[in-house]
Amino acid sequence: MLSRPRLRPASLLFRTSLTLGVSALAIAVISIWALSQFVIAPIAEQSAEDEAALLVLSAQTWVELPPPARPYYELELFESHELVLSPERRPLEPVVDPSGSLGLLQSALSDRLREPIGLFEGDDLTWAEIPMGGVMLQLGFAPDRGEAAPWSVVLVIFAAGAVIVFFASLLIVRRIVRPLEAVAQSAQGFRGGAEFERLPETGPQELVALTRSFNTMAEEISTLLANRTTLLAGVSHDLRTPLARMRLVLELMGDGVDGDLRERMVRNMDAMEALLSKGLKFARGLAEGQARTVELGAHLAMLVDTQAQPLLSFENRLREPRTVKLAVEALDRVLENLMNNALAYSEAPVVLRLKESAKGLKVQVLDRGPGIPEGERQRVFQPFYRLEQSRSVATGGSGLGLAIVKQLCDAQGWRIEVTEHGGGGGAVFTVTLPPSVQEP
């Protein structure tokens, strides 16, 4: 049974915030526990002792005062300490299992008076019955008197921690992501040309190492591609000279050569000429054309007309004319190679279609040929790779046409893909032009 993949946050900001948040939560929990054990608990116990001493002292003072002065003392006690003293014992509901500050107060009163002291509820107050001088006095106080607010403290800590973690994560991520975004954009736009500009090697040590490695890699790739282009162009160009000599010798031999042999040699030299021409085109593919503005639908219609192929037609699915700015010569070469490839393998009509999608304008070449197996759809863009494995140029081609298409598309930032033509077989080559090529 296949296990389900774990869902992990993709955003670096979210991951950093989550990591810092969990760390901050652990620190907050430990801090609250330590605060409770070593600060809040001792303060609460001392507060209960002070409250018990105040209650006992108030009762003792009331007993020692002459009866005429006691009402005035009760009033002063209420105004100064918010305590209500009642010499009349009234029936009250006992506090069941007092906890928190009330439990500490009850324990402190019992220890101070050396006898169990009861706590009661009534009139929205908490009452303590204190025996003093043969009189049972009831002293009332607010139920939340001396109560700490630990949950409020926890809430404040978590809220402040969340804000600090978010902004700290934002600051950290921005410092990390900016250089990474620069590397990603440079890598995405890198096509191996000589115009590559080195990225600035600044920032943290790890990002400097990453940027330096990328710059070195890009320069090595550019050098490698330049050497490959020079070698391929040189070989293709230099082979034309001996090929021209062979043609000249064949012409000078005149009737001394058998007609069938002459025809075979001419065909072979034509094939070699075509292969060398493709090699030169492949070698200079990166420098194909300058960008200029055209109305795309009209240009593609004219391109199809110049092919003069009865099996080739153009289909424009745009609702209105669309002006674009791109390397027109590169696009023409891409589409010409795709259309020639489709016409070579399809006896049914081939359609050049222009339509629009959310990712940009799409130019498609649709044929009804044998199609391309799914496992071969990426390999057909490799140089000298042919589905038809014979060495015949007439049946298998040179293996460079689709490689030139791929190279030109990569150089211009276009996307090329091949899919199956549904409903009858065949292949669909799609060139996606990004929205950036459209004129405002």
Helix content: 40-55%
Low-confidence stretches: 1-5, 389-395
- Which CATH class of the domain at 289-437 is shown? Alpha Beta
CATH architecture of the domain at 289-437: 2-Layer Sandwich
Report on the structure:
Strand 9 and strand 10 form a beta hairpin. Among the domains are: 139 residues, Beta-Lactamase, CATH 3.30.450; 149 residues, Histidine kinase-like ATPase, C-terminal domain (Heat Shock Protein 90, 2-Layer Sandwich). Helix 1 runs antiparallel to helix 4. The strands form three sheets. A five-stranded antiparallel β-sheet has the order 1-5-4-3-2. The N terminus is likely disordered. It starts with 11 loop residues before the first helix and ends in a 7-residue tail after the last strand. The chain is 54% helix and 15% strand. The protein is α+β, with helices and mostly antiparallel strands and 440 residues long. It has eleven helices and twelve strands.
Tag the structure with descriptive keywords:
440 residues, alpha+beta, Beta-Lactamase, 5-stranded antiparallel sheet, disordered N terminus
Q: Summary?
A:
The chain has helices spanning 12-64, 70-81, 100-113, 150-189, 205-238, 240-253, 259-283, 296-307, 328-345, 393-396, 401-412; strands at residues 84-86, 93-94, 119-122, 125-132, 135-141, 291-295, 312-316, 323-327, 350-357, 360-366, 415-420, 427-433. It has 440 residues and is of the alpha+beta class. It has a 5-stranded antiparallel beta sheet. Strands 7-9-10-12-11 form a 5-stranded mixed beta sheet.
